[in-house]
């Protein structure tokens, strides 16, 4: 009897192992939520809608965009951090992910331990734009105005701790000027206020404002990338304007909460990278101002390890505090 019982137990265990791959292969069996850390209309939202559409076609399940703006991306982080670790809740966020942990005390999350990188979608330089009819025609004009009337110059950004915000802080440090920072819950609302005349300048990722530049609503006066963006050859980089050590860009990437099974993470990474190989997706992202990088989980992990200490140094030197 004992032998029969032992054989029965072994068979049961084997059945579990045999069925395990099938359960993984079934993923996804229902719609997936893609939590976006900024409001509709900004770079992160635009990226999410392009990528989610492509991934939906490949995976056969709807990926639903869920905008959760606020607190420099921390609201979205809270939603995803508390979600079940089953792959059905994704987080698409920007470079704010590597900034917030050093900006907020105590940190709302550990960027290395609390989430698992899925894939890096792309990156783009930040740009400094003004309204088309603004009297600020060049970056030199902006710097001169700030030196003359610090309190009178306000600049908007997608939110405290975003790389566009920090690009503005770096400019102030390098040029020894002061401007008033106005944080928004995304680049969309920030653009609305710039066009409405409530702020004079907007620091933003290129993806968030490229359509406004092309439409002639705003004028770019500088870009913060190491190299010029192909379609903005007439706009100088900060380095070309004599401002050194001020390079910054904004990346867009997908994460899942820690504890998500490796098989599911691997499948999500595979689906994301497959979507980013599609010519129409690459072109759509380019038109939206984002250069496709298509970096896998391991590569994104290395970027996080590199950028977290970099931005911590900028924040500490600038004495930047969460608002």
How would you describe this structure to a colleague?
This protein has helices spanning 2-25, 43-59, 74-81, 96-103, 139-148, 163-175, 187-195, 206-214, 262-276, 279-287, 297-318; strands at 32-36, 63-67, 89-94, 115-131, 154-157, 180-183, 201-205, 218-223, 249-257, 291-295. It has 323 residues and is an alpha/beta fold. It has two domains: 30-123 and 250-318, D-Maltodextrin-Binding Protein, domain 2, CATH 3.40.190.150; 125-232, D-Maltodextrin-Binding Protein, domain 2, CATH 3.40.190.10. Strands 1, 2, 3, 4, 5, 6, 7, 8, 9 and 10 form a ten-stranded mixed sheet that branches. β1 (32-36), α2 and β2 form a beta-alpha-beta unit. α4 crosses α11 (297-318). The chain is globular, with a radius of gyration of 22 Å. The protein starts with a helix and ends in a 5-residue tail after the last helix. Mean pLDDT is 89; it is low at 10-24.
Features:
323 residues, alpha/beta, D-Maltodextrin-Binding Protein, domain 2, 2 domains, 10-stranded mixed beta sheet, 11 helices, 20% strand, globular
Look at the structure and give the CATH class of the largest domain. Alpha Beta
Share of helix among residues? 40-55%
- What coarse outline follows from CA principal-axis ratios? globular
Overall structural domain count: 2
Q: Quick gist of this model?
A:
With 323 residues, the chain is α/β, with parallel strands linked by helices.
Walk me through the topology:
Blueprint: H1 2-25, E1 32-36, H2 43-59, E2 63-67, H3 74-81, E3 89-94, H4 96-103, E4 115-131, H5 139-148, E5 154-157, H6 163-175, E6 180-183, H7 187-195, E7 201-205, H8 206-214, E8 218-223, E9 249-257, H9 262-276, H10 279-287, E10 291-295, H11 297-318
Parallel strand pairs: 1-2, 1-3, 5-6, 5-7
Antiparallel strand pairs: 3-9, 4-7, 4-8, 4-9, 4-10
Helix pairs in contact: 2-8, 2-9, 4-11
